[in-house]
Amino acid sequence: MNIAHVLLKNGQLGKISKEQRAGDCEVWRNHLHNPDFARYAEVFRVLGIRVIAADALSDALDRAAGHDGPALVEVITDPDLI
User: Fold this and answer.
1) pLDDT bucket at 80, cuts 50 / 70 / 90
2) Which secondary structure element, helix H or strand E, spans residue 39, and what is its range?
3) Residue 77: in which H helix or E strand, if any?
4) SS3 of 31, please?
């Protein structure tokens, strides 16, 4: 059975950042120091794929969908695009 998950990672608490920007405030004290989730997935024998460039996303999703087993695609996103 194939189960593929996509994780969007921007390094911030997105909802809080959005509210701070909406109030014309600077984004303050919500930067996260998360692990490399793709590597972490590999520890549990899950295919982990980390995407940094937009042009690599399609191939990563195809690879995850075609994998015989669980997969995690970690997509690094720009926190300023919230």
Assistant:
1) confident
2) helix 37-43
3) none
4) strand
pTM equals 0.78
Mean pLDDT value across residues 45-66: 97
- Closest by Cα among 73, 76, 61 to 9: 76
Q: Domain containing 40: what range?
A: 4-81
Which single residue is written with the structure tokens 């970690």? 74
Rounded CA gap, 31 and 76, in Å?
14
Number of domains in the chain: 1
Q: What is the CATH number of the domain that holds 63?
A: 3.40.50.970
CA distance 76 to 69: 23
Q: Is the backbone of residue 37 left (phi > 0), alpha (psi -120 to 50) or beta?
A: alpha
From the number of C-beta atoms within 10 Å of its C-beta (0-12, 13-18, 19+), residue 40 rates as middle
Chain length of the chain:
82
